Amino acid sequence: MALVTSKEMFRKAYEGGYAIGAFNVNNMEIIQGITEAAKEEQAPLILQVSSGARKYANHTYLMKLIEAAIIETDLPICVHLDHGDTFELCKSCIDGGFTSVMIDGSHLSFEENIALTKRVVEYAHDHGVVVEGELGRLAGVEDEIKVSHEDSSYTDPEQVQEFVNSTGVDSLAIAIGTSHGAYKFKPGTQPRLRFDILEEVERRLPGFPIVLHGASSVVPEFVKMINENGGAMPDAIGVPEYMLRRAASMAVCKINIDSDLRLAMTGTIRKYLAENPSHFDPRQYLKPARQAIKEMVRHKLIDVLGCNGRA
Ligand code: G3H
Ligand code: 13P
Ligand code: ZN
Question: Over the stretch 292-304, which tens digit does the pLDDT of each residue have?
């Protein structure tokens, strides 16, 4: 199996009423945990790399690790740039072998977002690469840029057809109330997503794949593990899993998960080191962390995304 684009994955996911998991990767153990679960569950996968991940781990290292995962799993895997913010970054990832890029012009005016996205689409399509665009703005932290809840904005369904037709994007990320990071909803309030916006987007773009960012559930077990072992995370609230299942049964074909991987890894390592204070071999604490990622991802593939057995 080789690297693939997300085109076929999304077509099947839309028809089948499930979603593909897009997991952020930063190092070998994270890639191994995710891909081992996907192999056992025979799930198609998107592994996504942010510009921060690329700075941290280096483009070539990440590509070679993903190539190794393809050899080990024999799965269709798409390598995607998460939140590309410039044409140059997208071009560099396309030239470097990514099969999908996101150009995130959601902070720009509608016209500027269209112009930038269109430029990336032209270059990407000439090279057999697919493009995700974004309309609407999520709150939260990504690549050290913090967007407050006041500065975030829901996607306006009236703009989606013009955006997709003028740019030629292959998928569209929309803002319906999710946000990046571990603090998505105010403690004490009921998490709420604007499914009415998703329905309206679906009506205006029939058959077109929609992407949901900020979709970690902020698994309470891992937050507890962190806080019981020396951590001090305030009340962290994620997107309830039943809402993600509902989105996956609708036009949402790609669901982005990063924070849950971070929490699984950090919680497990904190617990291990608290229980084994004299240990200092990184393999001893990275092994259970990788295993925790694997089991968490398996749960998402089966119970949240519904993409198991679809590879
Ligand atoms: O949406 C953002 C992702 O969680 C990536 O985060 O930019 O810190 O790598 P990062
Ligand atoms: P979470 O922070 O909810 O995991 O979202 C990740 C994401 O949207 C990556 O683009
Ligand atoms: Zn995102």
Answer: 999 999 999 999 9
